[in-house]
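RECORD TYPE: inverse folding
INPUT: C-alpha cells
STRUCTURE:
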C-alpha cells in the first residue's frame, strides 16, 4: 500500500504538465488588467485557445463561466532571462542544459533541444502567474545570476575554433503548459560584455569590442562567399560553419543580440557598437542604466533588468539603485523585469520584484506592462501573448487580489485556453509530510 501511495504521488507530480484540451470559456465580473488598460467588471472570452473579445457585459451563451467578481484578471506573466525548462538543479551539472562549454559550438548552441516539459520548475512558476518564458543560455556573467558553472567563459575550452567563444548561444520562447512547450526557437543571440565579456576576450574591454567587430566581419565575408568556403577557397575563419550560419541574422540586424552589461560607460560603448555595426541589441542587466537612460531611450534599445539590485557588488555596479526601473521607464525605455536566481526556481518572484519597483517609483501600470506586454514586444511577439486582446493566446490568470501583492494568489491559470492545475511538487511534498500517515515517509524509513 505504501509503495502504491508513493507511485501515485510521483505520477501526479509528473501529470501537472500533461496534455489537455482548450475550452471555450468566459471570465466575468473581475477587474481586468489587459496589459495596456483597465476594465472594471470585465468579461474575457476565450475560444479554441485564443482570446476573442475583452470588454463588459454578460458571457456568451453556451460557454463555461469563471466567476471573477471581487478578483483581478491579468494576462499570464512572461519570465525573461529565464532558465525554465532548461535546468532542474543548478548545482547538478547533468540536469543543466543551459550552459555549453564546447568552444567549437558557441553561437549555434540551440538550447531548445534540451527543454523538458515535465520539469518540476514549471508548475511552481505557474503558481506565480507565469505562463510564458524567454529561456536564455547561461554564461559566467549571465544576468540571471544563479549559475554554478565554474567557468567565466561563454563556450570555454582548449583548441578548436575561436577560443574562448564570444557567444553563449540562442534563446527560445516557451509556454508553461502541455507536453510541447516550445513556442519558437532561436529568437535571440546572447553575449556577455563588461567584466564578463572582457574575461572572454582575454582580460580587457577594448579587446572584446575589437574581437566582436572582427567576428562580424568574418560572418559577413562568409555570407557573401559560401561557395568559396565550400571549395576551401578562402582564408581560414575563426568560427565554425555552424556558428557563422547562426550569426548571419545577427550581422544582418534580423536577430537581436542580448548583451549582458551593467556599467554606464559599457552601456554607452555597446550602444556605439550597435550603431557602427547596424545590429539590433537588448541590454540585459543595465544596473547603471539610469545614468544614461536618455541615451538608451534615444537609441530605442529595450532593457531587461532586475529591479531590486541595489548593492555595488563589484566595480561595474557602483551606482546600483532600486529606482533604476523607474528612471528608465520615465526616460521612455521599454523595460522587462526579471525573476530571481536565473528566473527558474524562483521565476514566481517576478511579480514581487515588480511590486518592489512600484514601491520605488515605477507606476503600477508600467510594472504590469514590464511583466506582460513589454517582454512580448521586445522579442517580436506583440499581440500574440502577454496581453488580453482579440487574437492573443488565451493565457489568463485570475487573482484573489492585487497581483503584485505577495498575499494574493491565483484561483485560475489558463494557458492557450487550458486551465492548469493549481498544484506543484513543492505543495505535494508539503502535504505529504504535514499530514503524516501511510506513505508520508519513504519505505527506507519504515519499520
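DESIGNED SEQUENCE:
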Amino acid at each position: 500500500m505504501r509503495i502504491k501511495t508513493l507511485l501515485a504521488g510521483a505520477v501526479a507530480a509528473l501529470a501537472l504538465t500533461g496534455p489537455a484540451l482548450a475550452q471555450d470559456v468566459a471570465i466575468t465580473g473581475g477587474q481586468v488588467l489587459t496589459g495596456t488598460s483597465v476594465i472594471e467588471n470585465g468579461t474575457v472570452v476565450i475560444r479554441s485557445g485564443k482570446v476573442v473579445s475583452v470588454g463588459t457585459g454578460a458571457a456568451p451563451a453556451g460557454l463555461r463561466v469563471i466567476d471573477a467578481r471581487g478578483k483581478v484578471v491579468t494576462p499570464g506573466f512572461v519570465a525573461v532571462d529565464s532558465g525554465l525548462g532548461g535546468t532542474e538543479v543548478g548545482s547538478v551539472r547533468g540536469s543543466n542544459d543551459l550552459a555549453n562549454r564546447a568552444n567549437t559550438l558557441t553561437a549555434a548552441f540551440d538550447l531548445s533541444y534540451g527543454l523538458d516539459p515535465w520539469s518540476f520548475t514549471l508548475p511552481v512558476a505557474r503558481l506565480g502567474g507565469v505562463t510564458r518564458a524567454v529561456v536564455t543560455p547561461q554564461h559566467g556573467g549571465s544576468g540571471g545570476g544563479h549559475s554554478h558553472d565554474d567557468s567565466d567563459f561563454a563556450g570555454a575550452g582548449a583548441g578548436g575554433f575561436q577560443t574562448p567563444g564570444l557567444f553563449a548561444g540562442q534563446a527560445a520562447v516557451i509556454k508553461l503548459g502541455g507536453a510541447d512547450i516550445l513556442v519558437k526557437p532561436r529568437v535571440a543571440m546572447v553575449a556577455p560584455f563588461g567584466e564578463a565579456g572582457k574575461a572572454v576576450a582575454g582580460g580587457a574591454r577594448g579587446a572584446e569590442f575589437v574581437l566582436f567587430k572582427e567576428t562580424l566581419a568574418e560572418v559577413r565575408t562568409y555570407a557573401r562567399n559560401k561557395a568559396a568556403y565550400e571549395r576551401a577557397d578562402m582564408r581560414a575563419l575563426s568560427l565554425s560553419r555552424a556558428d557563422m550560419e547562426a550569426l548571419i541574422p545577427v550581422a544582418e540586424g534580423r536577430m537581436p543580440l542580448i548583451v549582458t552589461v551593467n556599467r554606464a560607460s559599457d552601456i554607452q560603448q555597446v550602444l556605439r557598437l550597435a550603431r557602427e555595426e547596424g545590429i539590433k541589441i537588448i541590454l540585459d542587466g543595465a544596473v547603471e542604466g539610469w545614468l544614461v537612460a536618455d541615451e538608451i531611450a534615444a537609441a530605442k534599445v529595450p532593457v531587461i533588468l532586475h529591479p531590486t539590485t541595489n548593492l555595488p557588488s563589484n566595480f561595474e555596479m557602483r551606482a546600483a539603485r532600486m529606482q533604476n526601473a523607474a528612471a528608465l521607464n520615465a526616460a521612455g525605455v521599454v523595460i522587462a523585469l526579471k525573476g530571481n536566481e536565473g528566473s527558474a526556481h524562483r521565476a514566481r518572484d517576478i511579480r514581487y520584484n515588480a511590486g518592489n519597483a512600484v514601491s520605488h517609483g515605477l507606476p503600477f501600470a508600467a510594472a504590469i506592462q514590464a511583466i506582460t506586454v513589454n517582454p512580448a514586444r521586445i522579442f517580436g511577439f506583440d499581440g500574440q501573448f502577454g496581453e488580453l486582446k482579440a487574437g492573443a493566446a488565451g493565457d489568463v490568470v485570475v487573482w484573489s487580489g492585487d497581483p503584485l501583492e505577495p498575499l494574493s494568489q491565483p484561483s485560475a491559470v489558463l494557458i492557450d485556453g487550458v486551465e492548469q492545475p493549481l498544484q506543484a511538487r513543492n505543495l505535494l511534498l508539503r502535504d505529504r509530510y504535514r499530514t503524516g500517515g501511510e506513505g508520508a515517509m519513504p519505505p527506507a524509513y519504515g519499520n
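NOTES: The two ends are 14 Å apart (CA to CA).
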